[in-house]
Amino acid sequence: MDARAEIGNFGPVFATHNTNSPVTRPSSSPARSCRFSLVTVTTDRLPLTERLFRSLAAQTHRDFEILFVHGPACPEGARALAEQFPRLDIRLFASRDHCLSRSRNLALPHVTGDVVAFPDDDCVYEPDTLARCADAFLRSPRPDAVLGRTADMDEDIIPTAASGFIPCASLYALFRHSVSYAQFYAAGVVRAVGGFDEKLGVGCDTPDQSGEDTDYVFRAFEKNFAVVHAPFVVVRHPAVNPRDRALEAKVRAYANGRMRLLRKYRLPWWFVLANIAYPLSRIPGECLRACRLVVKYRWDMFTARLGTLQH
């Protein structure tokens, strides 16, 4: 029985995605301990990286190392930032350019942990993020990769019990949960999958400025590793700012990467169309949520002013 069947009832994958012979699953899961290797890359956003490091310093699970890859513009600043956190195990690596995939690949041969993760420089871990993730990896049957839950920086989160996993049984599930900063891989998976595709992702030498994270989990899935979604493992990240003047160019670059990924895996035409139409399907719900916040603000304003008449 393959590892994915041990975790849950996995349905069929698209025929075009499963043309190779079955792959023997290497041993990947941590044995009894759970040391994390956190590969973090920044170009020059040191204040945001400091915020991330502060959240890591507050972790209840203390067994981790940070492989801090910095861009060519800030070697001294990166070194000074690492020195601010003497109790954290931080190793510095200098990247020659701003390619995110290439920068991560620079650090991967040096990881020593049982589990490898890739927190963005602008994300924030909850105090129990690593503790909950360690619990996930040490369960039986053990997953090979854990995809956590993402949340906005100021989003109210209802505490979730560290209950069962949700098996990622299809490419749709992988697409839905494959944000890089919430991905956690057993070290054996990283050894088997290798590095990130340097033709995909922010700063690469092609127009395809996204998709390296989804590509990575696809490659793990192809090798029959068990990938699960664990909603009790939470990682925060800033929400998209619609007023960002660079947003339009970023959206176009990210779209190139998404479409390149769909072509790379020869996914069905209906799945491609669903990806194209997905942003439109989100508009009604997001408009309603935004309107609800505005309406509440205006109602609170009205009731506050009305209340002044009673004084």
Task: Describe the protein.
The chain is of the alpha/beta class. It folds into two domains: 3-256, Spore Coat Polysaccharide Biosynthesis Protein SpsA, Chain A (Alpha-Beta Complex), CATH 3.90.550.10; 268-311. The chain is built from ten helices and nine strands. The chain has helices at residues 3-7, 46-57, 75-83, 100-107, 129-137, 171-177, 187-193, 212-222, 247-264, 269-308, and strands spanning 36-42, 64-70, 90-94, 115-117, 124-125, 145-151, 166-167, 183-186, 227-236. Strands 1, 2, 3, 4, 5, 6, 7, 8 and 9 form a nine-stranded mixed β-sheet that branches. β1, α2 and β2 form a beta-alpha-beta unit. The radius of gyration is 21 Å and the shape is globular. The N and C termini lie far apart (74 Å). Mean pLDDT is 86; it is low at 5-27.
SSE map:
Elements: H1 3-7, E1 36-42, H2 46-57, E2 64-70, H3 75-83, E3 90-94, H4 100-107, E4 115-117, E5 124-125, H5 129-137, E6 145-151, E7 166-167, H6 171-177, E8 183-186, H7 187-193, H8 212-222, E9 227-236, H9 247-264, H10 269-308
Parallel strand pairs: 1-2, 1-4, 2-3, 6-9
Antiparallel strand pairs: 4-8, 5-9, 6-8, 7-9
